[in-house]
Design the sequence.
C-alpha cells in the first residue's frame, strides 16, 4: 500500500473525504487516515439536521458521513480508521501509528478543529463534562444542565437541551451574548433556560462524576448543582505539528489553491478556514486540492515582494561628530522601506505581519531618546535591526538624512539594509 500513492489525506471528515473522492475521480490513488474509530469526523457530532447544504434537504450528519464514505469506497479510496499519522519534517510522507510509512506526491491536511476547553479543575477528570450534546438528546432527560459559552454553539445547545433537561443554566463570562439574533431571542425567551452573564466557572466538582460547578458571578462565588456540563466556548484548529505556517490563532495558512507554506502539503476545511467553517466550504476545498494535485502544482511559487514605505519621518536628535553639536537639536529625516508578503497576512494576525506605521515612529523616537549618536550610520543600523526584529518583514531598509555641519545648506545621508536570514527546516 505504501507505493504509488498520489495523495495521503490526514483527516476523514467532510473535507478529507471530498479531497480523496475527487482525487479518485481524477485517476489518482488516495489514502485517508482518520484518528477516530470511524470516518466522518465531526459530522457524527452534529446534534441537529444540516439544513444549509446547497442542493440537499435537511440531512443528518451521520447520514452524510455514510454517503461520503460509500462514494469513496466505490471510487477505490483506501480508508484507515482509528489510525494516527505524523507528517515527515522534510518530505510528503507520513508515519502511521501502526508503524507503516506512506510516501505520496502530496499530503492533504484535513484535521479540522477541536473544541476549546476551559482548563479548570475537574473538567478533564470527571464524567458528565461534554463538548457536544450529540444526536441522542434524550439521554439528558431530567438532568440539571450547565451550558458554558455565549455564541451560537452555546445557545444551540441550550435550545436542544431545554425540552429534555430538568433545567438549563446558560453561563457566559462576558457582558453580552454573541449568538445571532434569532437564536438568542428564542433561547432567552424560553422559561426553561436561565441565562447569566458575567459568570465564570472556576471549578467542576464531584465524586467521579460532575455534581457541582463553582461559579463566580456579580454577587460572588456560589455552587450550582449540575448533572451535565457542556463546554461551548469555541473551536481551536488541529494544525500544529505539521511544520506549516499558521496565523495568529493557529489556523493553517493557505493560498487560493489550498497550498500551504510547505511544498506538496495542502490543507482543506476548518483547519484553514475560520471565516466559513461549513460543510459546503469543506467539500469545495477538497475538490480544489484534488485538482491541484492532479495538475502537479502543489508547490507555492516564490512569493512576490511587497514594499511598504514610511517616507519623510522627521524627528529631532542630538547627533554629530563635534562636541558642540551634541548641545543642539538637529532634525533627522527617515525613509523606511519594508519588504513584506502582504498577501499572506490575514485579518486575525497581529501587526507583526503587516506594518504599524505609528509603531515605526514611536520606536524611532524612543531609540533617539536613549543616547547621543556620533554617526548617522549608527542610527540607521540600529533602527533597521530593531525594526526587523519587531515586524515580520523580509528586509528593512533605513535611509537617514541630516543637515550638514558646518555647511548651512549641505546635508548628509546614509542608507542601511538588514535582511532576515533564510529560515531553517520546519519542525
Sequence:
Amino acid at each position: 500500500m505504501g507505493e504509488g500513492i498520489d495523495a495521503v489525506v490526514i483527516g476523514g471528515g467532510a473535507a478529507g473525504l471530498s479531497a480523496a473522492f475527487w482525487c479518485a475521480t481524477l485517476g489518482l490513488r488516495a489514502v485517508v487516515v482518520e484518528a477516530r474509530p470511524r470516518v466522518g469526523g465531526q459530522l457524527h457530532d452534529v446534534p441537529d439536521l444540516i439544513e444549509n447544504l446547497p442542493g440537499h434537504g435537511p440531512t443528518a450528519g451521520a447520514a452524510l458521513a455514510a454517503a461520503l464514505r460509500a462514494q469513496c469506497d466505490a471510487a477505490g479510496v483506501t480508508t484507515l480508521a482509528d489510525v494516527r499519522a505524523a507528517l515527515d519534517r522534510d518530505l510528503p510522507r507520513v508515519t502511521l501509528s501502526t508503524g507503516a510509512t506512506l510516501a505520496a506526491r502530496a499530503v492533504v491536511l484535513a484535521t479540522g478543529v477541536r473544541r476549546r476547553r476551559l482548563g479548570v479543575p475537574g473538567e478533564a477528570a470527571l464524567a458528565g463534562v461534554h463538548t457536544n450534546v450529540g444526536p441522542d438528546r434524550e439521554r439528558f432527560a431530567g438532568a440539571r444542565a450547565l451550558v458554558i459559552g455565549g455564541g451560537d454553539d452555546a445557545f444551540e445547545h441550550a435550545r436542544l437541551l431545554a425540552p429534555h433537561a430538568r433545567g438549563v443554566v446558560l453561563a457566559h463570562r462576558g457582558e453580552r451574548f454573541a449568538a445571532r439574533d434569532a437564536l438568542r431571542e428564542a433561547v432567552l425567551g424560553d422559561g426553561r433556560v436561565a441565562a447569566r452573564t458575567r459568570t465564570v466557572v472556576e471549578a467542576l466538582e464531584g465524586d467521579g462524576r460532575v455534581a457541582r460547578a463553582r461559579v463566580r458571578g456579580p454577587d460572588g462565588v456560589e455552587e450550582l448543582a449540575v448533572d451535565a456540563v457542556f463546554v461551548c466556548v469555541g473551536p481551536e484548529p488541529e494544525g500544529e505539528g505539521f511544520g506549516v505556517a499558521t496565523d495568529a490563532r493557529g489556523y493553517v495558512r493557505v493560498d487560493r489553491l489550498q497550498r500551504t507554506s510547505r511544498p506538496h502539503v495542502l490543507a482543506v476545511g476548518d483547519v484553514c478556514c475560520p471565516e466559513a467553517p461549513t460543510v459546503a466550504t469543506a467539500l469545495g476545498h477538497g475538490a480544489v486540492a484534488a485538482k491541484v494535485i492532479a495538475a502537479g502544482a502543489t508547490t507555492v511559487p516564490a512569493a512576490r515582494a511587497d514594499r511598504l514605505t514610511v517616507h519623510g519621518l522627521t524627528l529631532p536628535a542630538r547627533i554629530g561628530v563635534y562636541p558642540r553639536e551634541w548641545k543642539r537639536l538637529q532634525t533627522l529625516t527617515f525613509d523606511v522601506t519594508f519588504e513584506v508578503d502582504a498577501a499572506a497576512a490575514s485579518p486575525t494576525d497581529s501587526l507583526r505581519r503587516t506594518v504599524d506605521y505609528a509603531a515605526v515612529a514611536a520606536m524611532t523616537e524612543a531609540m533617539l531618546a536613549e543616547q547621543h549618536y556620533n554617526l548617522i550610520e549608527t542610527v540607521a543600523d540600529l533602527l533597521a535591526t530593531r525594526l526587523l526584529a519587531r515586524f515580520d518583514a523580509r528586509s528593512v531598509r533605513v535611509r537617514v538624512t541630516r543637515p550638514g555641519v558646518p555647511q548651512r545648506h549641505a546635508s548628509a545621508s546614509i542608507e542601511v539594509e538588514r535582511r532576515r536570514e533564510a529560515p531553517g527546516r520546519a519542525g
In short: The first strand starts at residue 5 and ends at 10. Residues 311 and 335 are 5 Å apart (CA to CA). The chain has three domains: 5-114+235-294, 129-231, 306-419.
